């Protein structure tokens, strides 16, 4: 199994650098309550037909944990999408590739 993981560009030839805007969820910090941004998890390849929505979670860390868990359970390509920024923020592909 090959494990590929990297951040993905939001626009052709550009990397997204804006800080995320909170859109869903609350998290208690030592200094108060913080909004957590909502992220959608898809099975499929970013910007290719045939991808479908799996889940929506609050917080980027939770999104990565969920994506990794899904990729181990059912290998394949997954990506995390930030709807508020209209940007892909993470990709993993656990598709099995036979050695040459």
Helix segment count? Answer: 1
Beta content comes to: 35-45%
Low-confidence region ranges = 1-7, 9-24
| Fraction in helix | 10-25%
How many extended strands?
A: 7
Average of the residue pLDDT scores: 78
Name the structural class: mainly beta
Return the string of H and E elements. Answer: EEEEEHEE
Q: What integer value in Å does the Rg equal? A: 15 Å
What count of domains describes the coordinates? Answer: 1
Outline of this structure?
This protein has 100 residues and is mainly beta. The chain has one helix at residues 60-73, and strands at residues 4-6, 26-29, 32-35, 38-43, 52-58, 77-82, 87-93. The protein has one domain (4-93).
General description of the model:
This protein has 100 residues and is mostly beta strands. The chain is 14% helix and 37% strand. It has one helix at 60-73; strands at residues 4-6, 26-29, 32-35, 38-43, 52-58, 77-82, 87-93. The strands form two sheets. The protein has a five-stranded antiparallel beta sheet with strand order 1-7-6-4-5, covered by helices on one side. A two-stranded antiparallel ribbon has the order 2-3.
